[in-house]
Amino acid sequence: MLVAALQMGPAAPTISETAERIIKLVDKAGEAGVKLAVLPELALTPYFAAKIQEDLTPFVSPEDNQAAIEAISDRSAHYGMALVLPFAEQNNVGLYNSMAFIDDQGERVGTFRKMHIPGQLEPKPDTPITILQKRYFLPGDLGFSVHDLGAAKVGGLICYDRRFPESYRSLSNNGAEIIAASFNTPVMPGGTLAAARNASKLSMTAGAYYTGTTVIAAGKAGREGGVTFIGRSCVIGPDGTILAVAKTQGDEVVMAEVDLENQAKIRERWSFATNRRPDDYVMREPA
C-alpha cells in the first residue's frame, strides 16, 4: 500500500487559502495512488500558539474549519484515499488541538485530541519564543482511540505526544496498524535545526520499533512568523527504518510503500503483546 506524509511549508494567511494548497497535495498524492495520507499539526493555520493572540477567530472558526475539512475530504474521496487532517477544534467546552480521521469514502469517522499539552500560560520575557499551548488548548479527553479508515486501522499522535513512549504503546494495544504523527516543531532558542530534527526522528523511529508499527510523520517546514520549523516529514517502517523522508522545506508529498502483512510477521516474531508485564510497570520499593 502506498502512503504519504503531506508536508506543509508556512501556512497561508487564511484557512481557505491553506486548504487550497492542501487540495493540491491531495491531488498529487491521489494521482500517484496513495491510499492513506497524513497532514501536519494545525494543518489549516499558522502556528498561532507561540504568542499572545487577541483574537483566535482566524484560526479556530468552526465554520471555516468545517468548510475546509469538507472540501479536502471530498477531494481525497475522489481518489479513494483516507486522510488524517489536524486542525484547531473549537466546541462548546473549549479549544482542542485535534485531528480528524477521514476514511477512503470521505467520511469523517473519528477525532483525536492532543493528550499532552506542552508549554506555558504566559510568555517568558527573556526568550524570543515561548510555547503557549497551555494558554489555548485543553488536554485531550478522547484517549488514544484507533479508527478504521478502510486502508488501515489508524491512531494519532500530535507533536508533543510523540515524545511519550506510552502514547505509541497505547495505540498499539488499541489495535493501530499505522500511527499518524503530526507536528509543528520549532527550533527553540539555544537549539539547532539538526538537533531538533534528530530528537524528532529518535522519538518516532523508537516508537515504531518498540511497537512494530508503521509511523507516517508529517510536519510543518520552513520559516513562519520568524520561527524555523523542522519539517523532515517521513514514513517509518515497523522495524524503525525510515522508508522515505522530505527533501525540501516546503509543501511536499513524501511517499512510501508499506506492507502490513510483513508488519504482522514482525510483531509475531517480537511477541510484545504476549510478553508484556503490565502489572509490574509501576514504581515499587525494592524487596
Label this structure with key terms.
26% strand, 6-stranded mixed β-sheet, 29% helix, globular, Nitrilase/N-carbamoyl-D-aminoacid amidohydrolase, 8 helices, 287 residues, single chain
Structure description:
- With 287 residues, this protein is α/β, with parallel strands linked by helices.
- It has a single domain, classed as Carbon-nitrogen hydrolase (Nitrilase/N-carbamoyl-D-aminoacid amidohydrolase), CATH 3.60.110.
- It has helices at 15-32, 57-60, 62-78, 133-136, 165-173, 193-209, 260-270, 272-275, and strands at 2-7, 36-38, 82-90, 95-102, 108-113, 146-148, 153-158, 178-183, 214-219, 221-224, 227-230, 234-236, 242-245, 252-257.
- It has a six-stranded mixed beta sheet, covered by helices on one side. Strands 6-7-8-9-12-13 form a six-stranded mixed beta sheet, covered by helices on one side.
- Helix 1 (15-32) runs parallel beside helix 3 (62-78).
- The longest helix is centred in the N-terminal third of the chain and has 18 residues, at 15-32.
Briefly characterize the structure.
With 287 residues, this protein is α/β, with parallel strands linked by helices. It contains eight helices and 14 strands.
The low-confidence runs, each spanning 5 or more residues with pLDDT under 50, are: none
Mean pLDDT: 96
The total count of strands amounts to 14
Strand order within the widest beta sheet: 5-4-3-2-1-14
Which structural category do the helix and sheet elements fall into?
Answer: alpha/beta
Strand content: 25-35%
User: Alpha-carbon distance between the termini?
Assistant: 50 Å
CATH architecture call? 4-Layer Sandwich
Helix content: 25-40%
CATH secondary-structure class = Alpha Beta
CATH superfamily: Carbon-nitrogen hydrolase
Largest sheet: 6 strands, mixed
Elements, N to C (H/E): EHEHHEEEHEEHEHEEEEEEHH
